[in-house]
């Protein structure tokens, strides 16, 4: 198989405590998109109020120097993807987002644009879940029922955004995040899960993946102990096809 | 419509901090099942290790005075439900549980036994989610894909077990529980959600529903502000058919 042309910036969270929308990743966005990209196609489907969401994203990204079109303002969203120079899928509810991508027949077109045409893809939170092999490790409530949990499959593994370490002082008896990911790996044919703490993001260029941001990540692979990874870590091995399944 | 014969005890959580399995609800279980029930059919499908789970439940419930059969030990689980005197569905992962109930064709049979034959149904956590109209407000990760999010429909509303008040000191930017339930109610045709704090449980007898336990509950109805309810609160109005939808 040819090396996919994919270029992805998968962000754990759009807003970091104490900062504004996309505040903590402004520099990464700029160096990721570079000078060539002029306009970004924003996908606000994960939130209910799409007009307000597009307004927030537009203001922020225009400040960084990019024009923004919101896909919900097009009568033909597939055509909007076809003509886009770069795609940014924002966070919110992952089930709602994925259902909209299926309902509007956008899955194949986005895959084609990113994997074949090489246009840059940015996702934050739900938008990062949507980029992976499936949404099996979203934190969101299943408020709607998408036709499948399979997602865009731009990478052959899962992400858990907003990854949260167990709180040793908690008296709450609901499962910790780690416990929930272990439950996923109790099922057969399940994929590696990269737990991206808030403040972390994964940069993918072709077959190279690098951890960016400041907070590190925790990697869960079925049948193995979880491992800790610092900013700068090379995660390219997660992109190898042999890691697709670990049954 | 005739008054359903249902008798339900829907528990937020099986283990309370500092206590053992079912420790905090032993008295409620005893007075709910009474003297007539001799054996309970335990449903361990929400956990991966069903043998270990059945062993835990059996030890605990035998101490309270009941014999326990685990449904996973029967070659014909539908037949096991048909012959049961009482059903207890334990917690774990709600998606895994619901998928198993569909895969084993148990939905209709459990409904019939509870709503028509009037056998007592106990659920804890995922087992309480499964009793309601849908699992749209589970806290669990979607580790598997059930054929629908519609659940047993023994009551015409949703439950959020392990309900957790917002932590005002948190710097984590993931949605609070309340925010997640609001996201559910942004969708049309969505049902009331009863947030049962750990230590709370709902007793349903026919068309009467009463809050038990010590920690209270928070009720979310689409288009209204959430309301607080103390132990002893009468929730019978949630059982009225007119509350089925609030579009
Ligand atoms: Ca979310
Ligand atoms: Ca659970």
According to CATH, what is the topology of chain A?
Answer: Rossmann fold
Distinct ligands? calcium ion
Helix content of chain A: 25-40%
Structural class assignment of chain A: alpha/beta
CATH superfamily of chain A: Class I glutamine amidotransferase (GATase) domain
Shape of chain A: globular
Spans of chain A of at least 5 consecutive residues whose pLDDT stays below 50 are: 243-247
Overall number of strands of chain A: 11
Strand-residue fraction of chain A?
15-25%
How would you sum up this structure, described in words?
Two copies of one chain form a homodimer. Chain A is globular, with a radius of gyration of 17 Å. In chain A, 26% of the residues lie in helices and 21% in strands. Chain A has a seven-stranded mixed sheet with strand order 3-2-4-5-1-8-9. The first copy, chain A, has a four-stranded mixed sheet with strand order 6-7-10-11. The two termini of chain A are 23 Å apart. The first copy, chain A, has 247 residues and is α/β, with parallel strands linked by helices. Chain A has seven helices and eleven strands. Chain A has one domain: Class I glutamine amidotransferase (GATase) domain (Rossmann fold). One calcium ion binds next to loops of chain B. Chains A, B: It holds the Pfam family Peptidase_S51. Chains A, B: Hydrolyzes dipeptides containing N-terminal aspartate residues. Chains A, B: This is dipeptidase E.
């Amino acid at each position: 198989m040819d090396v996919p042309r994919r270029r992805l910036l998968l962000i754990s969270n759009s807003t970091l405590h104490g900062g504004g929308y996309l505040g903590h990743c402004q520099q990464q966005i700029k160096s990721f998109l570079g000078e060539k990209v002029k306009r970004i196609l924003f996908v606000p489907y994960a939130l209910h109020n799409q007009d307000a969401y597009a307004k927030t994203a537009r203001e922020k990204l225009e400040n960084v120097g990019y024009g923004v079109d919101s896909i919900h303002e097009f009568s033909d969203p597939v055509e909007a993807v076809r003509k886009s120079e770069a795609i940014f899928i924002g966070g919110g509810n992952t089930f709602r987002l994925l259902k909209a991508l299926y309902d509007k027949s956008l899955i194949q077109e986005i895959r084609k644009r990113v994997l074949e045409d090489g246009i840059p893809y940015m996702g934050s939170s739900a938008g990062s879940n949507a980029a992976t092999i499936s949404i099996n490790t979203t934190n969101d409530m299943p408020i709607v029922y998408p036709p499948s949990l399979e997602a865009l499959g731009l990478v052959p593994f899962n992400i858990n955004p907003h990854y949260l370490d167990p709180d040793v002082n908690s008296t709450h008896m609901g499962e910790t995040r780690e416990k929930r990911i272990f439950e996923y790996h109790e099922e057969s044919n399940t994929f590696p899960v990269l737990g991206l703490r808030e403040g972390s993001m994964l940069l993918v260029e072709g077959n190279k993946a690098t951890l960016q941001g400041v907070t590190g990540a925790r990697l869960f692979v079925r049948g193995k102990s979880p491992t800790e990874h610092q900013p700068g870590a090379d995660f390219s091995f997660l992109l190898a096809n042999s890691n697709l399944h670990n049954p």
